Amino acid sequence: xxxxxxxxxxxxxxxxxxxxxxxxxxxxxxxxxxxxxxxxxxxxxxxxxxxxxxxxxxxxxxxxxxxxxxxxxxxxxxxxxxxxxxxxxxxxxxxxxxxxxxxxxxxxxxxxxxxxxxxxxxxxxxxxxxxxxxxxxxxxxxxxxxxxxxxxxxxxxxxxxxxxxxxxxxxxxxxxxxxxxxxxxxxxxxxxxxxxxxxxxxxxxxxxxxxxxxxxxxxxxxxxxxxxxxxxxxxxxxxxxxxxxxxxxx
Amino acid sequence: xxxxxxxxxxxxxxxxxxxxxxxxxxxxxxxxxxxxxxxxxxxxxxxxxxxxxxxxxxxxxxxxxxxxxxxxxxxxxxxxxxxxxxxxxxxxxxxxxxxxxxxxxxxxxxxxxxxxxxxxxxxxxxxxxxxxxxxxxxxxxxxxxxxxxxxxxxxxxxxxxxxxxxxxxxxxxxxxxxxxxxxxxxxxxxxxxxxxxxxxxxxxxxxxxxxxxxxxxxxxxxxxxxxxxxxxxxxxxxxxxxx
Lengths: 250, 243
Description:
The complex is a heterodimer.
Chain A: H1 12-15, H2 18-34, H3 38-55, H4 59-83, E1 88-92, E2 95-98, H5 99-122, H6 128-137, H7 142-171, H8 180-210, H9 227-249
Antiparallel strand pairs in A: 1-2
Helix pairs in contact in A: 2-5, 2-9, 3-5, 3-9, 4-5, 6-7, 7-8
Chain B: E1 9-17, E2 23-32, E3 37-41, H1 48-55, E4 63-68, E5 71-72, H2 76-85, E6 86-89, H3 93-96, H4 102-112, H5 117-130, H6 146-158, E7 164-168, H7 176-188, E8 192-196, H8 200-206, E9 209-214, E10 217-220
Parallel strand pairs in B: 3-8, 3-9, 6-7, 7-8
Antiparallel strand pairs in B: 1-2, 1-4, 4-5, 9-10
Helix pairs in contact in B: 4-5, 4-6
């Protein structure tokens, strides 16, 4: 199940217009991703952490999400300093750590964490449904938005069908092992899932046609203007200018 | 049956078979009049759902004539108008509810019929209230319980203000409370409908005629039969009859 633990909340950031959050999260991510100077990157991590604190999220839950990404980054630390060409930073017996490799790894670490924290603060603080509507208002192509929303809607149904199939296999004594029977069973299971998903899609489409669907979707969501939007936009703009300044000056 | 008026649904010699199979619907005739409330009871696989899909134009019969609201319908284009006047409630509510929120799903139909946003919201709220679903507007459709899903999908159909309802096993998988609710709603509706169900008591309570389907045809059987089933009540040991 996809749960949205951060979507519910009463913080100031939760109240900001989702469209504005999407716009600034995108701009912020791009600026951080293109930054190379460490003062700018360190500042970005601090700012992102500040946003998470302002959103009032459970820091422990946020940390758990960061662990997933930093596991991947750990791999980079193991590979890049050893393989990157450039002047050496340190000799450890036969192993040479390259300076550009270490710098690159550090940059990637800071960038990823800063962007991830900002996205958790700004994007996870709205439900996926709201995000879909915000994107649609931002003139993201309708097909993409609806693909996104329908996927989210039917992931649950397909997951349920998957669980039903697994249960059906289990109650008949299926125990996975390393043998051809297991592979075959899983192949059938996945194949069946595709067949069922396709049949489901067909029925959903029929139901939509029965209700006069002509290829157009409508969104009923409204985003009322609020003063908090102006405050948020001003602060975020200041952040962005600050980061650009740090990047250019150093 | 009102013999004076013309049938609003008139099927003549409809035949349909799924690819590579024998005909599920075979030379079927059906005349459905305004004010009719028909129950269809038949074993699984006897073409009840197929019949509904043919009426809605979702399946194209191999042969036969379909007349709905006095007009012959044939092409997809003809059915567009039919679909706004006949509401089909699907067996599985998950097929019917695809919008993220309840209000959007109920408003989907009216919006497709060209209503303005405000009108669509107004109609949707009224329909939800009528079904006792006030306050459900912003709930997420896939997080509803089975009974709530069925009621909301019923709302999505009613919001189109159909003249005829086709209900495909509306009680399956529901608890007694929701069943009672659906029966009440049906009795309070002023719409003609055809109802598929496996439950004779439910059909007896909500419909005027009950038909069955056999060999791809609709049979009306007015005769009552003496039959046996196990049941329990006081004085059960004394020979007696139920009429």
